[in-house]
Amino acid sequence: MAFKKIKTLDELQTWRQNLDGKLAFVPTMGALHDGHLSLVKEGLKRASQVIVSIYVNPTQFAPHEDFDQYPRQIEDDIRKLKEVGAQTVWLPDTQDIYPNGPEITVHAGEIAKTLEGEFRPHFFDGVTTVVARLFECVKPDIAIFGEKDFQQLQVIRHMAETQKLPIEIIGAPIIRDENGLALSSRNAYLSVEEYKIAIQLNRIMKEMADGQIDEKQAHQKLLEADFDKIDYCCSRNSATLKPENPNHILAAVWLGKTRLIDNMPMLAVK
Ligand code: PAF
Predict the structure, then answer these.
(1) CA distance 80 to 77
(2) pLDDT > 90? residue 196
(3) Is the pLDDT of residue 250 over 60?
(4) Distance from the alpha carbon of residue 165 to the mean position of ligand 1, in angstroms
């Protein structure tokens, strides 16, 4: 079957009406790497069709953040999607996503207030707003999100549950490079020197996950490794994201202008 590139909402709706079988959806902001492609592969295992959207969503960026610099490389992205076997890509424009202009219409709720929510208070409302709209347009049976954005996955699960959406939300494991750095489109911002520091993050988190060091020691090690700033590096409960009954480590740290996030289960806790 030929690869299909959909641009308009009308085209998307006609395509959807004529589609048979199970549809898996992978929403992205492009600059695709192996992490995104693993989500497509997960979709192909679970459904007969996979559609990927590529849309850099303005409402999840604060004015001082990297919306303008966010890497945009559509032709390269499409080539990768074809190679991995996705059948369809949707490249929405802002008019289709935000017919009344970019504004928040879906609030993310309590689980969004901690961790990322403390440092990027605008972020999750932007994500729930865009994902709800993408779901409404694509009408998938399944949607797949990376566990790399662990809190985002929980926020979307929560939204799907409270809105009683008939969509199965699947989390797919983090893909790491050969040095353990979690793949992210923003890794492209790292200089060679910064990369050498960045790869210490998962090593220090692993020591904390193993119970070898505590939160205070992890912060100290991160600063010694030369990270510029730590937004958080802490243990939380993976379902509630509260400090009670911790079984998961989550971190967000800065290297120059680049913010890295990562997470992993605590090995010492069964
Ligand atoms: O994870 C992302 O790339 C984005 O937050 C998402 C889910 C595509 C919404 O814009």
Answers:
(1) 5
(2) yes
(3) yes
(4) 18
pLDDT band at 53, cuts 50/70/90?
Answer: very high
Sequence ranges of the domains in the chain: 4-172, 185-263
- So which residues are the catalytic ones? 36
Superfamily for domain range 185-263:
Pantoate-beta-alanine ligase, C-terminal domain (3.30.1300.10)
Nearest to 49 by CA among 29, 74, 20: 20
How far apart are the C-alpha atoms of 63 and 122, rounded to whole Å? 10
Q: Is the CB of residue 134 less than 8 Å from the CB of residue 52?
A: no
What does the pLDDT read at residue 268? 65
Q: Output Rg (C-alpha) for the chain, integer angstroms.
A: 19
CA of 72 to the centre of ligand 1 (A): 14
Q: Which residues line ligand 1 (CB under 6 A)?
A: 27-29, 57, 60, 127, 130-131, 149, 152
pLDDT at 269 over 80: no
Which CATH code is given to the segment(s) 4-172?
A: 3.40.50.620
Pocket test for ligand 1, best of 54, 130, 134, 174 (most atoms within 8 A of CB): 130
Q: What is the pTM of this model?
A: 0.96
